[in-house]
Amino acid sequence: MAGExxxxxxxxxxxxxxxxxxxxxxxxxxxxxxxxTGRPHxxxxxxxxxxxxxxxxxxxHWAERGVxxxxxxxxxxxxxxxxxxxxxxxxxxxxxxxALRRDHFGARRTLLTYQQLRAAARxxxxxxxxxxxxxxxxxxDAGRRQWRYxxxxxxxxxxxxxxxxxxxxxxxxxxxxxxxxxxxxxxxxATRPADALGVYLRLAEPxxxxxxxxxxxxxxxxxLSIRDCHRRLGSPEELTAYVTALRTAxxxxxxxxxxxxxxxx
Length: 265
Hints:
The chain is mostly helical. The protein is built from 14 helices and no strands. It folds into two domains: 6-189, Serine Threonine Protein Phosphatase 5, Tetratricopeptide repeat, CATH 1.25.40; 190-265. Helix 4 packs antiparallel against helix 5 (94-108), helix 5 runs antiparallel to helix 6 (111-123) and helix 12 (213-233) packs across helix 14.
């Protein structure tokens, strides 16, 4: 075929010939004389070699073929997707880059694939429409509570977009991981200090019953955030009462007391 690299038969680009040349260039396991064309990473190796050989048309063909033959974009080598999107962008085929990023996001629905779709769509000046569709998928996942230990990707995506109010609403409606709530509170503290304060207090409570320097560092970090919230709310007396009660209850934890002293708590 016209787009087939010349080293699939005869001499390879490094001077090796026959099966040995093919094995070096495409990662063949040796079971046969041709590359495993159903493997997306093999297509990526071939596409890169064709690029080096200044055959961009053939390189693009092999990259597209790798994605097409993979079938399931959730399992395709992400490096191959990245490579093909880069080539589309370089060729000015921005709509194709967006379409591939959209399909890849739809198959995997992670924060990374959301960010990649956003970057491609912004370059093509169509992020507003693409964002609406992407968030709809993430809302459906969150509503079905289809997320891993880190919490719903919807909250991460909205936080990454700096859409704090929408992220807060999503976390309230669908639930969120404690790490996401902490990130939410950190981003919202300037405009929603009372809400952020409630999160910090809740996260601090279980730590007060634990010991260890790592725990004490986490607790003091939360106490500093609690102090900032009270400063914004104009309620220093409440902070004083909280810290005093904490010190009284845990005065035997010398390392905790030392850390609090160091930070003026």
